[in-house]
Amino acid sequence: MEDERRTILLSNQKDHELHEGIELKSFMSFLKWVCVDQSSLWRASLSWSVFLFLAIGVPVLSHFLLDCSSTCDADHTRPYHVPVQISLSLFATLSFFCISRWARKYGLRRFLFIDKLFDHSEKVRHGYKEQLQKSMRLLYVVVLLFFAIETAYKIWWYISGGTQVPHYGNLYLSDTIACILEICSWLYRTTLFFLVCVLYQLICFLQILRLEDFARVFQRETEVELILIDHLSIRRNLRIISHRFRAFVLLSLIMVTASQLAALLMATRASSQVNIFKAGELALCSMSLISGLFICLRSATKVTHRAQSITGLAAKWHLCATINSFDYTDGETPTTQISSAQVFPLGSECESDTEEGDADDDLDDAKMVPIFAHTISFQKRQALVNYLETNRAGITVYGFVVDRAWLHSIFAIQLALLLWLLNKTIGIS
After folding, report:
1. Are strands 396-397 and 400-401 parallel, antiparallel or unpaired?
2. Which pairs from 243-250 meet CB under 8 Å and 24+ separation?
3. What is the pLDDT of residue 390?
4. Hey, what's the signal peptide range on this chain (predicted)?
5. What confidence tens digit (pLDDT) does each residue in 322-335 have?
6. For residue 98, with 0-12 CB atoms within 10 Å meaning exposed, 13-18 middle and 19 or more buried, which class applies?
7. Distance (Å, rounded) from C-alpha 150 to C-alpha 299?
8. Which of 73, 240, 318, 420 could form a disulfide with 381 if both were Cys (CB 3.0 to 4.6 A apart)?
9. What does the alpha-carbon distance between residue 274 and residue 265 come to, in Å, rounded to a whole number?
10. Residue 144 CB neighbour total at 10 angstroms
11. What is d(CA 76, CA 78) in angstroms, rounded to the nearest whole number?
12. Are 171 and 163 in contact (CB under 8 A)?
C-alpha cells in the first residue's frame, strides 16, 4: 500500500515537472530572444555584447551623430533627447545587472520558486501556471504598445526630416539603418525594465495564492503548530523576495522620481517650447517608466495587505471560538467538538448589507468562520493571535513595509517636491 502511494506521488510529481518544463521552455525562449540568457559562456558573452551595444552604444552614437539642433526645423530639434536616453539606459542597466545576478546566483526555477511549487496545493500550482501565462501576455502587450508608438514617432521623424536629419552616404540607407537601430535600442531597454517588473509581479502573485490557501486553515480543524509552521514558511518567502528585489525597487523609485523632476524642470523653463513633436518621446518615456514602477508597487502592496489581513482573520476566528466556548461551557474550553452551525454558521454575516467589498479584502470579510475549538485551547489561540499581531508579514524595502501607509508617505514626499519645483520655475506658491 505504501509502495503504491509512493508510486502515485512520484508519477504526479513527474507530470507536474513535465508541465513546468513546458512553461519554462517558453519563458527561456523569451529570455534568449531578449539576449539575457547567460546559461553558458557563449550566451553570456552574447548577452553582454548586445547590452553594451543597444543600451549604451546606440544611444551615444545617436546623440552625437544625429544631432541636428543647428540644421533641423523647430519640430525636429529633439531638445529632450538626452534625458530620455539617459533614463532608459539607466533603467536598462539596473534591470540587466539584476537579472544577471539572479540568474547566476539562483537559477530560473529557484528564483521563481518553481522548485518548491509541488509542495503546495493543486489550486496554488494551477493559479501560478495561469499567472505565468498572464504575466507573459502582459509583458507582450505593454512592450508592444509602447514600441508601436515609438516606431511611429521615429518613422515620422526620419521621413519628415528629410535632408535636415544628418545622414552618411546614401540618404535612404543611412536613415533606415539609424531608424532600425534606435527602435531596437528602445525596444531592448524597455523590455529589460518591464521584464523585471513582471517577474516581481509574478512572484508576488504566488505569495498571494499561498496566503489565500493559508487562510483556509481557520475554516477547518487544525493544530496551532501547523498554522504556525505554514505562516513561518510564508514569512520566510516574503523576506526572501524583499531581500532580492529591495535594491531594484528602491533605485527604481529614486530614479523615476529624479527623471520626472528633471523632465518637469526642462519642460517648465521660460525658454522651453513644449509640443507633441518635441516632447512626445519624453512623455512616452515617462509613461513607460511610471507604468513599470506602478506594477512593482501595486504587487508589493497587495501582498502586504493580504498578509496583514491574516491577523484580522485569526482574531475573528479566536473571538468566535471563545464566544462559542463560553456559550456551552461557561468559560471552559470544551473537550468534545462543538458544532458552530448553531451559533456562527459559515456564511453568516454580522450585518445585513450584502454589498460586496474590494477584492483585496477577501481575507478580511465580515463572514463568520466555522469553529473547531475542541483541539485548540484558549491559551494557544491567544498566543497565536498575539504572535500574528506582533509579527506582521509583508514585503519590505530595507525594513520599511510596503503598505498603503508607505505609499501615502511616498506620494506626500513627491507632491512636496513637485510643488517646490513648480514654485521655483513658474512661481506657484
Report:
1. antiparallel
2. 244/102, 244/111, 245/200, 245/296, 246/396, 246/397, 246/398, 247/98, 248/94, 248/95, 248/98, 248/196, 248/200, 248/296, 249/200, 249/296, 249/297, 249/300, 249/397, 249/402, 250/397, 250/398
3. 83
4. none
5. 776 655 444 444 44
6. buried
7. 27
8. 318
9. 12
10. 13
11. 6
12. yes
**Residue 163 DSSP code:** G
Please report where in the chains the cell 546566483 appears, as a residue. Answer: 105
Whether pLDDT at 30 is above 90: no
- The pLDDT confidence band at residue 223, using thresholds 50, 70 and 90, is confident
- Cβ atoms of residues 130 and 21 within 8 Å: no
Cell of 74: 523647430
Check the CA dihedral 39-42-44-47 and report its sign: negative
- Look up residue 173 and give its three cell numbers: 540607407
- Which letter does DSSP use for residue 334 in this model? P
State the angle between helix axes of 171-214 and 122-161 in degrees (0 to 180), rounded to the nearest 10: 160
Can you list the positions of beta strands (E) in 38-107? none
310: closest CA among 361, 367, 255? 361
Grid cell for residue 283: 512623455
Element (H, E) at 46: helix 41-51
Whether the predicted pLDDT of 387 surpasses 50: yes
DSSP letters, 261-313, are HHHHHHHTSTT----HHHHHHHHHHHHHHHHHHHHHHHHHHHHHHHHHHHHHH
CA distances from 305 to 208, 280, 300, 302, 361 (A): 10, 37, 9, 5, 8
Burial class (CB in 10 A: 0-12, 13-18, 19+), 202: buried
Q: Which three cell numbers stand for residue 250?
A: 528602491
- Average model confidence (pLDDT) for the chain? 80
Helix (H, G, I), strand (E, B) or coil at 136: helix
